[in-house]
Amino acid sequence: MQVVVIGAGVVGLTSAWYLAQKGLNVTLVDRHTDVAQETSFANGGQLSYSYVAPLADPGVIAKLPQWLLRADSPLRFRPRLDPLQWRWCLHFLRACNDAQVRRTIGEMLSLSYLSRDALDELLAAHPLDFDLIRTGKLVVYRDAAALASAVPLVDWQRGLGADQRVLDGPACVDLEPSLQSVAGQLAGGIYTPGEATGDCYRFCQALKRLLTQLPNVTLALGREVRALVGERQRVVAVRTDQGDLPADAVVVAAGMFSVPLLKPLGITLPLYGLRGYSLSVPLDAAIQVPHLSITDAARKIVYAPLGGQLRIAAMVDMGVSRADVDPARISLLKQQVAETFPDLDLGRAQAWAGLRPSTAHSKPLIGRAQGMGNLWLNVGQGALGFTLALGSAKLLAAQMTGASSPIDHGPFQPR
């Protein structure tokens, strides 16, 4: 069986890996000449298996007016004459209810824990080097009421297998001394010891090297996919700028490019690109820097130590179609970071932006595309692409080969 996987980001690479492990012949195609050149290039670097709560939350609705009107808001919305944008927003608002949120969290935890276990299995067989650090994650709160509102979710997730601990402000600083400069501002935090950080780009490069060693895998990089050739509700070939690639099955794992690619087949993907930003800051051994993953809950900024650098990721821009770096947003981010970590040399920071392919309910779409017998989707991981990639790929490979599903795949079926 010949499978063509479209997209060489972390989701496409892991999809190719697990399909190849099942004995299928796999061709991985991407328009770039190397892997992980877009959303997987410089993302937040956090492997946050217990932090999979959807963006759509009842508490978000009350915050939306101030977020949309303030210049320093973590979320910026640009309305456009785009039916897809307004349809996505409508579904987002409908998902902002307690029952839906609890159901989604339970489903997403099953997928994230599958991904966590899959990473352990992969590294046991192949000790990949991508600056993996398992020091845990600390979410800090500056407002006591915000911390109190997060505690019920901690208690509930504990019943689903999450190990999380509520700390007061001084305990947060004891755990992470680099927060000393804001010690007086901290109401407390939530510490999850099982979380990790890693360089997604380096992980993709390491997985690429493994794939090149497999006789049943072909890397067709530097080939732009122009269209999917369909006949009688099946895809018979993937048309590229260098000729057609025949296929018995096709996996679309191409992030936001998946939307225009599938539209000619009559498939409208409910994805919207949420632009996020990151800074990669070289670390100086002379200053005190974070040793674990930190999230500033109020400002929605994450900090991840990656080898000799600190990856800082933040912000959501909705209503933009390109992954361009907005200098004003980067300037704001640097200002906020400097208030928390004043000793960081942000003058050496490398700025980056990427489009997170997101569904309104924050669940990825993993499974057979409706109406097409041999077309499969693995898209919509949003800001959790690195965290969910291995689990998503493992779930997809089981469906495609008829193997026993490692978890219930129903919640992630494309509809």
Task: Give the percentage of residues in beta strands.
Answer: 25-35%
Tally of domains: 2
CATH architecture of the largest domain: 2-Layer Sandwich
Taking the alpha carbons of the first and last residues, their distance comes to 26 Å
CATH class of the largest domain: Alpha Beta
Number of strands: 20
What level of helicity do the residues show?
A: 25-40%
Shape: globular
Low-confidence stretches: none
Query: Order of helices and strands, N to C?
Result: EHEEHEHHEHEHEEHEEEEEHEEEEHEEEH
CATH T-level fold name of the largest domain: D-Amino Acid Oxidase, Chain A, domain 2
Rg over C-alpha atoms, rounded to the nearest angstrom:
21 Å
Secondary structural class: alpha/beta
Mean pLDDT across all amino acids: 95
Description:
The chain is an alpha/beta fold. The protein has 2 domains: 2-40 and 202-271 and 362-412, FAD/NAD(P)-binding domain (3-Layer(bba) Sandwich); 64-96 and 131-196 and 272-358, D-Amino Acid Oxidase, Chain A, domain 2. 33% of the residues lie in helices and 26% in strands. It has helices at residues 10-21, 58-69, 83-94, 98-125, 144-158, 169-175, 200-212, 258-262, 327-340, 385-401; strands at 2-6, 25-30, 46-47, 75-77, 137-141, 165-168, 188-192, 196-197, 217-221, 225-231, 234-240, 243-246, 249-252, 272-282, 293-296, 301-306, 309-318, 350-358, 365-368, 375-379. A hairpin with a 2-residue loop joins β16 and β17 (309-318). The model has no long low-confidence stretch (mean pLDDT 95).
